[in-house]
Amino acid sequence: MRAAVIGGGAWGTALGHVLASRGHDTVLWAREPDVVEHINVTHANPRFLAGATLHEALRATTRMSEAVHEAECVVFAAPSHVLRAVVQSGAASVPAGATLVVATKGIERTTLALMTDVVAAEVRGRPVVALSGPSFAQEVVHGQPTAVVAASHDRTAREQVQRALSGGPLRLYTSEDVTGVELGGALKNVMAVATGIAEGVGLGLNSRAALITRGLAEMIRLGVSVGARVETFAGLAGMGDLVLTCTGALSRNRAVGIAVGQGTSLSEVLASTESVAEGVVTTTSALALAERQGVDMPIARAVSRVLFESASAREVVAELMGRELRPERDG
């Protein structure tokens, strides 16, 4: 089929490579001219996916209308804080019969909308599929076995995406729980920052295990409050992605947390890389959503204090450990 990928970062590039490898006529849109040139000439993206050789059939362009022309499947992989603007810029060119795939993980800061809701609001009348799960772009493009989830209320659309991307090292499962799959993918980034901060201040594996487990409890509480299914958080888009992002050496969110925990300011950390750590943006959005829903998220609140209020990471950890004692299932 004809496919378009909107976003030339690491994940967008990896998905473009997978689609091209599966035999789909794939064009990737990127804002950066050097990214487009490298993909077209050298079959690489050294700016965002260094060391990877891309499928020679993958093409790239800086023109959105060219990328989505006659596309049957349009994959959005732009960062969450610019996704709406990116979608708006190309909405008029998206074919009427296209299936829209949202590979961005996050919660929009101003509206608290999930990423599929952002895309659906800007490109109306097309089925929308959320794509999430434990998947480092570097490993996907190098052919490491990876399993993710395609979630949609439209069965035909989610199964179309499942067939389009599955094959070789990538396997897709399907789900109807769009809210759970999306929130799992967004909130795990906040918890990865938390585990990184703990590692940065020198805490050990016991602390990491506690943060991952209690972080999952926070994710479930917020998810259920907005209609997600508990069981979704035990799957690939929940626990699977959470464990990978909190422990993997390739995790940008974990790396940001480590640097901050070691004493580097957030502004310095963010200025040192072009890659986006979605957990930084999502921390604020998640807490706003939790407040709206009346849900307690002490770990997310602690991350916010360290990132944005210059609170001592060690003192914040001590405060978390000194909270009122309660049964595990009550939080």
Structural class, from helix and strand content?
A: alpha/beta
Write down the overall geometry.
Answer: globular
| CATH fold category name of the largest domain | Rossmann fold
Distance N to C terminus = 47 Å
Poorly predicted runs are: none
**Helix residue percentage:** 40-55%
The main β sheet shows up as: 8 strands, mixed
> How large is the count of helical segments?
15
Q: Any idea what the CATH superfamily of the largest domain is called?
A: NAD(P)-binding Rossmann-like Domain
Mean pLDDT: 96
Strand arrangement, largest sheet?
3-2-1-4-5-6-7-8
CATH second-level architecture of the largest domain:
3-Layer(aba) Sandwich
Tell me the count of domains: 2
The radius of gyration computed from the alpha-carbon positions, rounded to a whole number of angstroms, is 19 Å
- Can you identify the CATH class of the largest domain? Alpha Beta
The arrangement of helices and strands along the chain is EHEHEHEHEHEHEHEHHHHHHHH
- By DSSP, the count of extended strands is 8
How big a fraction of the residues is strand?
5-15%
